[in-house]
Amino acid sequence: MVLMAAYNAWMNQNLYRAAARLSPEELIADRGAFFGSLMGTLNHMVVADRIWLQRFASHPAQHSALDPIRYLPTPTALDQILFAELAALAEHRAMLDDIISTWVASLTETDLDYRLSYSDRKGVTHRKRLSSLLLHFFNHQTHHRGQATTLLTQAGQDVGVTDLLVLIPNETLN
Asked: What pLDDT, in 10s, does the model give residues 123-143?
């Protein structure tokens, strides 16, 4: 999971670097994506992360890395625009990525095996293994980063290499 957190942060930095080259009008232009614009997509990724991190903060271990998340307002909709300006959104994204990396590095096998109970946006209660929920959490980010990368490419911006493989170290033969 540490590798996934590193990949998450690295790719988000690349996305926001490319997005910063667009004008405010280009950022909010409806491009037909799930969340309309690039800003809509980037905001959705932050909204979803905050929702999940607040759920993860209910883990009985009460990981201190998640303390800043506990005090943030819970988003009210998956398409909520938390930040209208890219710079503020990028700052919040970087803070979330730091929290995610610190938290994931502190998790133990016992933490990962814990069955977390949470209610979804419709009020349905679920109980699932934290390790599986983390796979979903990182997969969700990858899914929407793919959309954001496409939107940036359509707008003439190169995000660069996007493969997780780049962060996997080479191994020496034993």
From this structure: 999 999 999 999 999 999 999
